């Protein structure tokens, strides 16, 4: 319902598709399972998988306190474009009640990360500031570079890996990256997060993974 009601695509709001409903059911089952660390979603071009991944990423950080998410794509520029076009732009078009308190001002689409932490503003009373500090989510979402260890160094609640099948081997070995990032959602055999990977089914001009 979050995708259908509020998450705007390039040409407006999405239509209801039963296959999308089944995808979200499956994703919820994956998240709740202790036996799976994520899923790989393969679809035809134009199926909306990037917007779905963006919505899933945003939903994670605004429904879980202190959640941390990141995005990797087939190149650093593609990750930046994905973060801007598929997350920040739809976020900026949401109604105010679906955008938690954050520290940023101005045009959000130029940012490389969003932190949902409070920021004192001119004229704000200390009482009000203490109130929003208590209610803030303290979540963060960002994009990382495409390398195998580009998002290494922390524990992630969600890692979005976009276009894994179209990633040129000259950029990164996506299997090696997946194995490396697995350790960012799994600690001492305990599942702490999930990986949502996606790819398009089409002919690969440059020889994907």
What does the overall shape look like?
Answer: globular
Placed side by side, the strands forming the largest sheet appear as: 1-8-5-2-4-3
Question: What integer is the average pLDDT?
Answer: 89
- H/E element order: HHEHEHEHEEHEEE
Percentage of residues in helical conformation? 25-40%
The N- to C-terminal Cα distance equals 33 Å
Structural class: alpha/beta
Quick one: how many beta strands? 8
Q: Count of DSSP helices?
A: 6
Main sheet properties: 6 strands, mixed
Beta-strand content estimate: 15-25%
Spans with pLDDT under 50 lasting ≥5 residues? none
Quick structural summary:
The chain is α/β, with parallel strands linked by helices and 209 residues long. It has six helices and eight strands.
List the helices and strands and how they pair.
Elements: H1 2-6, H2 18-32, E1 38-43, H3 49-63, E2 68-72, H4 76-92, E3 113-115, H5 126-135, E4 140-143, E5 158-161, H6 174-182, E6 186-187, E7 190-191, E8 194-200
Parallel strand pairs: 1-8, 2-4, 2-5, 5-8
Antiparallel strand pairs: 3-4, 6-7
Explain what this protein looks like in three dimensions.
The protein has 209 residues and is α/β, with parallel strands linked by helices. It is 34% helix and 16% strand. The protein contains 6 helices and 8 strands. Strands 1-8-5-2-4-3 form a 6-stranded mixed beta sheet. A two-stranded antiparallel sheet has the order 6-7. Helix 3 (49-63) packs across helix 4 (76-92). It is globular and about 55 Å long. The model has no long low-confidence stretch (mean pLDDT 89).
């Amino acid at each position: 319902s979050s995708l259908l009601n509020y998450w705007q695509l390039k040409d407006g709001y999405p239509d209801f598709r039963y296959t999308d409903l089944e995808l979200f059911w499956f994703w919820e089952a994956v998240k709740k399972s202790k036996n799976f660390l994520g899923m790989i979603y393969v679809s035809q071009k134009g199926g909306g998988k990037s917007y779905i991944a963006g919505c899933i990423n945003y939903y994670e950080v605004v429904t879980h306190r202190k959640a941390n998410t990141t995005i990797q794509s087939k190149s650093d520029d593609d990750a930046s474009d994905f973060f801007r076009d598929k997350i920040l732009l739809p976020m900026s078009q949401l109604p105010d009640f679906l955008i938690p308190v954050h520290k940023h001002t101005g045009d959000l689409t130029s940012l490389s990360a969003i932190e949902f932490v409070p920021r004192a503003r001119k004229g704000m009373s200390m009482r009000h500031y203490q109130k929003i500090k208590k209610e803030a989510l303290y979540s963060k979402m960002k994009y990382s570079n495409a390398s195998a260890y580009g998002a290494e160094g922390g524990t992630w609640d969600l890692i979005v890996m976009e276009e894994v099948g179209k990633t040129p081997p000259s950029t990164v070995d996506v299997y090696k990256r997946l194995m490396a990032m697995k350790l960012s959602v799994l600690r001492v055999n305990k599942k702490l997060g999930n990986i949502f990977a996606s790819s398009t089914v089409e002919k690969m001009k440059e020889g994907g993974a």
